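Table S2 (continued). Query chain:
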Amino acid sequence: MTVFEDLGTFHGVPGRLADGGARCQGGPDTAMAGYTLLELMAILIIVGILAAVLAPRFLGTSGFTGQTTTDKLLAAARYAETLAQNQGVTTALTVGANSFSVTQNGVAVANPARPSTSFIVPLPAGVTITPQTTVNFARPGVPSTTPTFTITGTGFKASLYVTTTGYIYECGPQGACPP
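Corresponding output:
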């Protein structure tokens, strides 16, 4: 037997390679890989249960509307303070039952995000802010009162504190609210 004739044999058995594998894939001695119907059904049931439990946590907006309102009130208070410092005009942050606004001499100022509109922000349904009061910021940005605003919504509660120097922050993440 020549060297070329011996290439296709393994221990003298024609059709086998030296590694013991079959020459052709898919033959009767080749095992097929895959999942059983039972395994696929178990995976679908587990994914369905996880979707039913976790989807409401990610799709609900109750916490988002409360935090968004908190962020908007914080921005409005800081904007009122900045206007009082830069323009030398007393600027008021007024919190009402249905909205809050930034005004100068009783007139709502232009919204910096949309200059063609007034800085009046309506409260979303289910969100409340207490106390309903007006904070006037004088020339150096000093407030007339130092309230702690509490923003509440469905499953949400946050507090904003106005310091005597005019700095406004969210209690908790950046510091404790005063007693």
